[in-house]
From TrEMBL:
InterPro entries linked to this entry: DUF3419, SAM-dependent_MTases_sf
Keyword Transmembrane helix tagged: yes
Protein name: S-adenosyl-L-methionine-dependent methyltransferase
One Pfam family named in its UniProt record: Methyltransf_23
Source organism superkingdom: Eukaryota
Keywords: Membrane, Methyltransferase, Transferase, Transmembrane, Transmembrane helix
GO terms under biological process: methylation
Residues that span the membrane, as ranges: 17-36
GO MF, one example: methyltransferase activity
């Protein structure tokens, strides 16, 4: 019976939470008290401890029942804020994290858009909803000059006491373009203020916004709308979010930062959220923070964020924790109108941009919908054989037909990155890590062999993106960069964004030295408008790569760092560190050879080392990225080379048993190392002209020696607007991408050593080869490298309409290039079209009538 329970034990859940949280409050109290003691300089307002006590009182002790005037939400708000308006800024600095990041991100978007505008229309409106004391508007001056950049700024807040603080602030700053509007956000309409009718301050007598016609008025809408920690405080958030779309200009940006709690389960079937790094909050966190904030009438339920994401397109989104206060989850989200900004094309056709991107992805001709009438295009669609469609197109169509926003890739400023489903196992297997921080292929040799021109359409493996960039220097019509590992593509995106947004000095620090102390702020305020949401999230979570004081920078990250570390470890353990330094300083080949043969080679190339470390399959795969099948190829080559003349042994792994191959591994790997390294020492001065080995040995490039893409001239060329218009970054298997290219459009495919990874003799290799044949033009070329002198699959190419030419072979101490990691290099030229089995009949069940869609 309830009455028997002693009264001191609270039964009401509210008080239970209160007691559970009490200890935390005390803890937070200590943190506040101690941090404020050292930061007394916080502008006006009372001292630290007093601020905290008032904050504490208002947040946790004072009952929020209003003062009985019966004015609903405003009443409650006022009861909460009245006592603490004066100390608001001092107490929130640490509690409301992420506000500067959000401001930096939206400012970067606006500045990027301003740079693209041809007309010098400087009218720019910002509405800060729930702006409180105006702290954000003042903080924006860290990014742009508020009085000059914005023609008018509206601070809309429902709490008169906070509005009063805000008015004083802007009077002090002398910013006359900022107007403080003390009003419920649900009823705020720009038209009431922008038509020059009045300098409306105070309670604007707003008429009810037209219920049926959700149209922007004559004003054209706000270019920027921000909600910083206010969405969670508005009980009736649906109507406020709905009103945003009328408030926002067609090309406007919304910036939101707020607390949230969400489970990954809620998101699992949504493909438009722009990535979910750190988004999941565990069960305890979800329960605790919701209950905790409920005390202050702050609503953390998932629906607030979900509804935003449903009503608008996601440009960028990121999730983080406020670790100072027990890791409260918060998010930063940038959105735009659900209808993609069709600056590429005529607006008003939501499907048009989807079609355009699709055409670019699949190399199919793009037919503008203006060209045909609706009915015509529909009959065309029904009568012609199924077209080849990109996966991005399929994704967009499904989501359009459900009235959902498009995947976030469609809302980016650049359409470089193509949509992919990041939850697929084939992508998550990489565990958020790239393997290659730099590309192990000599771009100078590629350049000489390929001689790309303005009509070339190139498909190449991304790897670290270095070669993609060096192809871009030849300005081919299109480059399709393909990688199954999303993180490799994130790295390429970072490089491309850095060209687009950073001066050479910063570019050099990032990718020449691999370290940059200001990486995070550059990422937010410069690089973010040029990146996809997923790449942005990735780098925001991994700023340590460039910034860590202990870390060795970019070139010691990724899977290949193990190899570099082992070299460093060995050189320290065996005492030849000084020799490596001398080697890198050598000015002549003779000097270099001397140091190598006398000092380093005997130690590093000892057979013992090779047997114990390098020939371990685990080492080869993890550190050097050599898969099992490739290993078998070099083992077979070794057996063939050792065989007695007269009884030749096959050089294909198919000709040997696995046992035979295994037993020769130590020997074979040792030989392979000798054939790789000795010729390199003989033919190029590492410190002068071999950036590939230089970066392995010292973890950074030097001003004297670096890949072409890092030269100031390259930066000049690739930082021009539109330099990467032809770039498409695909996250998928080569097979899948080639399959969706229009037949006969590709002129060059660079597949690196990826053919080595197929099981010897496997049907999969034949399939890939015939798909390459189909996608290539007659005369189109495949460039590949292999760990074998004569790879087994060359014969398969010849059976599938190609001629082959070995353009480099590591025979008799020759180098195939400055890296010399592969035994051979081939160019295969397409000479005939294969009769194509109709391998793929794309289903058009998902096809919907785009014209009738409304988004
Ligand atoms: C946590 S404060 C954030 C203040 C400020 N944006 C900042 O980041 O410091 C939330 C603000 O939302 C305002 N607010 C709550 N409900 C509102 C409503 N319906 N209309 C306008 N403002 C509201 C409150 O008055 C309060 O100033
Ligand atoms: C119509 O199609 C033709 C050929 O595809 C093209 O040259 C022309 O520019 C298109 N017209 C419009 C308005 O898009
Ligand atoms: C959005 O498109 C993706 C990609 O095809 C699809 O997997 C997802 O289910 C779609 N979302 C919804 C809610 O239909
Ligand atoms: C985010 O960063 C943490 C710590 O650096 C790391 O453990 C985690 O794997 C990263 N997550 C992603 C998705 O990159
Ligand atoms: C050969 O080596 C691989 C990997 O080390 C191992 O999985 C396989 O069982 C070995 N085969 C034989 C026949 O020893
Ligand atoms: C990232 C993401 O949400 N992916 C989902 C896309 O949609 C499919 C099908 O609904 C899901 O299986 C994926 O998890």
């Amino acid at each position: 019976m309830a009455s028997l329970i002693p009264n001191i034990l609270p039964r009401d859940p509210h008080s239970q939470i209160f007691i559970v949280g009490a200890s935390l409050v005390v803890l937070i109290g200590f943190i506040f008290a101690s941090t404020f003691r050292f930061s007394k300089k916080v502008d006006e307002g009372p001292g630290g401890l007093a601020s905290f006590l008032r904050f504490f009182y208002a947040s946790f002790l004072k009952p929020h029942t209003g003062d009985g005037t019966g004015n609903g939400q405003q009443d409650a708000l006022e009861s909460f804020y009245k006592a603490q308006a004066g100390v608001y800024d001092a107490t929130r600095k640490r509690l409301l994290r992420g506000r500067e990041d959000m401001l930096g991100l939206v400012a970067a978007q606006l500045v990027h858009k301003a740079g693209n505008e041809r007309t010098q229309d400087t009218k720019r409106i910002w509405v800060d909803i729930g702006g409180g004391t105006g702290w954000n508007i003042e903080a924006m001056s860290g990014f742009v000059s508020v009085p000059e950049f914005f023609s008018s700024v509206y601070l809309v807040d429902f709490s008169p006491s906070l509005c009063e603080v805000a008015r004083k602030r802007f009077a002090r700053l002398g910013w006359t373009n900022v107007k403080v509007v003390c009003q419920d956000a649900r009823t705020f309409r720009l038209e009431d203020h922008e038509n020059g009718a009045s300098d409306a301050v105070g309670y604007a007598a707003s008429t009810n916004p037209s219920y049926f016609a959700e149209k922007t008025g004559s004003v054209g809408g706000a270019d920027l709308v921000t909600l910083s920690y206010s969405l969670s405080m508005i009980p009736d958030f649906y109507s406020v979010i709905d009103s945003l779309s009328a408030l926002l200009a067609p090309s406007g940006t919304i910036g939101v930062v707020d607390f949230y709690v969400q489970s990954i389960v809620d998101l699992s079937c949504r493909n438009y959220t722009g990535g979910a790094i750190n988004r999941h909050v565990n069960w305890f966190g979800r329960l605790f923070w919701r209950a905790w904030f409920d005390v202050d009438r702050v609503g953390l339920e998932a629906g607030r964020r979900d509804y935003l994401e449903y009503r608008f397109g996601t440009v960028l989104s990121a999730d983080s924790r406020n670790y100072l206060l027990g890791s409260i989850p918060y998010y930063v989200w940038l959105g735009c109108s659900k209808r993609p900004d069709a600056s590429l094309s005529t607006p008003n056709y939501p499907h048009e941009i989807v079609e355009r991107i699709d055409a670019a992805v699949t190399e199919s001709p793009y037919l503008s919908p203006i060209n045909h009438t609706q009915t015509l295009s529909r009959t065309v669609e029904r009568s012609t054989p199924p077209e080849i469609r990109s996966k991005a197109f399929d994704a967009a169509i499904i989501n359009l037909s459900a009235n959902l926003p498009l995947p976030s890739f469609f809302y980016q400023n650049h359409h470089w990155r193509i949509h992919y489903d990041d939850q697929l196992k084939k992508h998550t297997q990489f565990k958020h890590e790239y393997i290659y921080a730099f590309t192990w292929e000599d771009s100078r040799v590629d350049y000489r062999l390929l001689k790309l021109g303005p009509h070339d359409v190139v498909l190449a493996i991304t790897s670290a993106g270095d070669n993609i960039l060096s192809y871009a220097l030849s300005s081919p019509a299109r480059i399709h960069a393909v990688d199954l590992n999303p993180n490799q593509n994130h790295l390429l995106e970072l490089k491309v964004a850095a060209y687009s947004a950073l001066p050479y000095a910063d570019f050099w620090k990032l990718f020449g030295l691999g370290k940059h102390p200001n990486f995070r702020s550059l990422l937010i305020s410069r690089l973010s408008p040029h990146m996809s949401s997923r790449a942005f999230q990735y780098w925001l979570n991994n700023t340590d790569v460039f910034m860590s004081a202990r870390g060795k920078g970019l070139y010691e990250t990724g899977g290949s760092r193990h190899a570099i570390r082992i070299v460093r470890l060995l050189s320290t353990a065996l005492g030849f560190r000084g020799q490596i330094k001398r080697l890198l300083e050598a000015k002549t080949l003779n000097e270099q050879r001397e140091i190598w043969t006398k000092r380093i080679r005997p130690l590093i190339m000892s057979r013992v080392l090779s047997y114990l470390v390098v020939s371990q399959e685990k080492f080869l795969w993890a550190a050097l990225g050599v898969p099992h099948n490739q290993l078998a190829m070099l083992e077979a080559d070794h057996i063939a080379a050792e065989s007695i003349p007269g009884a030749p042994s096959p050089s294909s792994p198919l000709g040997h048993s696995e046992k035979e191959l295994n037993s020769s591994r130590g020997q074979a790997v040792w030989e392979y190392m000798v054939q790789t390294l000795d010729p390199v020492i003989e033919s190029s001065i590492i410190g002068e002209d071999n950036p590939y080995y230089l970066v392995c040995l010292q973890g950074a490039y030097s001003q004297r020696c670096h890949p072409d893409y890092l030269k100031p001239k390259s930066h000049q060329k690739l930082s021009r607007p539109g330099a990467f218009d032809g770039l498409r970054i695909h996250t998928d298997e080569i097979n899948e991408v080639v399959n969706r290219l229009t037949p006969g459009t590709l002129t060059v495919a660079v597949v690196m050593d990826s053919m080595d990874w197929f099981d010897p003799g496997a049907e999969a290799a034949n399939t890939q080869i015939s798909k390459l044949n189909r996608a290539l033009k007659l005369g189109g070329r495949v460039l590949l490298r292999s760990a074998a002198l004569t790879p087994w699959y060359i014969a398969a190419f010849e059976e599938h309409g190609f001629t082959s030419k070995r353009v480099g072979a590591r025979i008799g101490g020759a180098c195939i290039d400055r890296v010399n990691m592969y035994a051979s290099c081939y160019i295969l030229t397409k000479i005939e079209n294969l009769a194509q089995p109709t391998s793929r009949t794309p289903s058009r069940e998902n096809s919907v009538d785009l014209e009738t869609l409304e988004i």
